[in-house]
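Predict the holo structure. Ligand: DGJ.
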Amino acid sequence: MPIHATEQGWILETQSTGYALGLNAAGLLAHRYWGARLPRPEDYPPAPDPMPWVSFNGAAHLTPEEYPAYGGLKYIDPCLKVSFADGTRDLALHFDSADLREGNALDIHLCDDVYPLRVTLHYRVHEAYDLIERAATITNDGETPITLERVWSAQWHLPRGDTYRFTHVSGRWADEMRLQREPLVPGIKTLESRRLTTSHHSNPWFAIDRGTADERQGEVWFGVLAWSGNWKLSAEVTDFSSTRISLGVNDWDFAWRLAPGDHFSTPASYAGYTADGFGDASRRLHDFIRDTVLPHGHTIHKVLYNSWEATFFDVDEESQARLAEIAAQMGVELFVMDDGWFHGREMDNAGLGDWWPDARKFPRGLTPLIEKVNALGMDFGLWIEPEMVNPDSDLYRQHPDWVIHFPTRPRTESRNQLILNFARTDVQDYIIGQIDKLLSDHNIAFIKWDMNRNVSEPGWPDAPGDPRELWVRYVYGLYRVWETLRTRHPDVIWQSCSGGGGRADLGILRVADQIWVSDNTGATARLFIQDGFSHIFPANTMEAWVTDALNNQLSLEFRFHVSMCGSLGVGGHLLRWTEAQRAEAAKWIARYKDIRHIVQLGDLYRLRSPRDHALSALQYVSKDRAEGVLFAFRTFIPDPAQLPLIYLDGLDPDALYEVEGFPGSRSGQAWMKAGAQLDLSDFQSTVRRIRRI
Ligand code: DGJ
């Protein structure tokens, strides 16, 4: 049983970790322990009591509370802040009760001393993944409304008194997921999105270590928030050496009117602990995402072709058919027509919202093209951007009030578009109807769902509650639309794109199968972007195209190898590729088909990061350790240079393995400890199959 209730409180155990909480002498629900699993329940430390007296600070400031609310002599970053109808703006929570629930779950109820407000903390143990899931529900049991001003999902506590290093990702459009490492010092480090989406700029993910962990060893605490809207991560080191990471819906410009009898439930935060470094932390998340989050987590994704970088908006039946013919000859399995196909879409200044084929470009509709693609042996996929509208569209002319706006302000356009207010059910229903029709009328196997701007003037004139609920209700609406379409069209594969990686999170991966990682398809930049991405997401979600970017500087081989590290796609202008290039592409696609089950579903080992080394390498190993693939990339290293050895990982030390390109066989231990010498020149790369004998 992974959850024990004892006199000291509760212990949540996974395969190799333990997490304990309980009430301390001050009656506060305190964090007790999070780390390696201990042999006996009695081994877990009791809830820490606050220091007896510290002038200027109350007991709660000195207690690692599981879910601190704002109130009393406590100044740490709280998880919950509310305003009662009479103007009272603090909380005094006490423990009420706890329920062990089906499915390895625990609910702990806290109630306010005076007001009819109930906080339920939800815990769930994901034993096999060494992850704990947390969320909270706030219920108004009274007769007057309560305004929620901040309601986060969880506060995760690190062992007290140590100093820590914080790993996270930052970036921007076309440069997402750059890994950052920095010491945590007293104070608060905040990461957030105020953009309506998860954003290209940072991601609700953290990894914490004591500064000594690496890919292969060391204690790492890591976690995520499963949410696709505004979010906040607060990493606080208190003035009393307590380190906490809180995650939740962003409280910036947030308010939620909790009517009598209503409740508000937060999105989930998942976090884990490992003693085996950042590599193991990633693998745990990858397995969890593939096994439990993704709708088709174990489906091997097809090699796709995408038209965007070839034809941009200039699509029509003939040009796409010509691309499709070449793609099919190369071994592509899924042909995706990107932007430009729908009513009035000549450039980015018109058409969004009118989701039917453009009569000039497709006078016979989409079906003849789809039939052609199918006859070539490929599935057909299509690009849409359902949350958007161009002012120059039939939809906007009919419903100018459907966009997010403040009536007295100009509506700021970005990429000539405005955002439909997905918080409104009429908007959701309209879009469900449009996209459902598109999918019902055509044989479409794949949808790329794009979202190409961030919010401005976040107004909702007819909002039924507080207009600031928009931030959350928009995401609820997005999930509802997507889930409804998924349910009606369960075999469609969906990709989450927001101008590249602007919406990559575990919330969207409940409805989307893949993520378009970045609009930057330059293979050397991709090495970094994919490295950051791989810390959170598994390779089957990482769609990676070979395009014409950097084709003057990088070989087709190098570009293919980079994309073969994820879910391979091609996005170059195939009509301009020579016969020799097409033949080479066909060779790499065939090679990818041979190894993709290992890449997409295996364990990832980052052997040498491109952040630290001009010779970078990564390896995938099948779950049964019988086969693997090694990728290595050399960028620029001044000659004369002897390349460092590559130490493989994840093999059975006692088994014998062959690695393509090396004579004979060696034990797994030898490949891992004695290493392998590669010979690559500048901007050369290699892919090597690994086989257990
Ligand atoms: C942004 C995406 O990231 C691109 O791949 C492409 O689909 C364009 N939008 C189309 O407008």
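The first strand starts at residue 3 and ends at 6. The first helix runs from residue 277 to 293.
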